[in-house]
Amino acid sequence: MSTVTATRHASREVKPVTLARVVLSEWTKLRSLRSTVFSLLAAVVIVIGLAVLVSSVTVAHWPPKNPAELAAFDPTSRSLAGIFLAQLAIGVLGILVVTGEYTTGMIRASLAAVPTRLPVLTAKTVVFAVTTFVITLPTVLAAFLIGQAIFSGKNLQTSLGSPGVLRAVVGSALYLTVVGLLGLGLGALLRTTAAAISTLFGVLLVLPIIVRFLPSSWSTPIDKYLPSTAGQGIVAVHPDPSTLSPWVGFALFCGYAAVVLVAAGVSLVRRDA
Question: How far apart are CA 17 and CA 187, in angstroms?
Fold first, then answer.
């Protein structure tokens, strides 16, 4: 009788797989990875460190001798210069979130626990996006405020209330988050760290350089639709008029990341782990 009771009790303890539980599982895995701590810490140090460095060097050599540099000076972009290097750390972290499991074989256990598979990728996407945005938003805000405090020594500072500045600051965190999601999607699609990193760096860094070597009649209309160019428009206080408007460009950048994530989802369902 006791055996039957124990069996019934055990059966009641088996809980169904829900997206909320998968999200909790992915959060546990993400915060337990050393690469998460190192990559996010690197991004924070890069963003704030370059804000201090670039702002200090600018003030020390002010005013510039080049009139064009003086006319193009933007205190917001100077204080947020670190995001263009930090994107590499965030992008690689997004890749490692997935490829790390393929390397260790843990992905088999994850997919065995969630046979429908797609909730695993969905949960990874949600957890990574929220974590990245929550970390990067105060980081870029701190970088901006530190930069403006340094610029105030030469009365060059701006404020969050100035046109386009708040969008640029919040947009910096949004841009870094989507870069990470693009990396996550590539990691899930390609399943190997080296291939995913090469592809991500190629898309964000190499492709724009190649396009700029094309004749201007080709490069100008093509460049504005590239992922990096489209996404970075939201970071600029005074966007280049030859590019897409900030929110349209960012929407296109999100679209690129979404396409990669959808392709990764299809691959996850159809291919063996």
Answer: 24
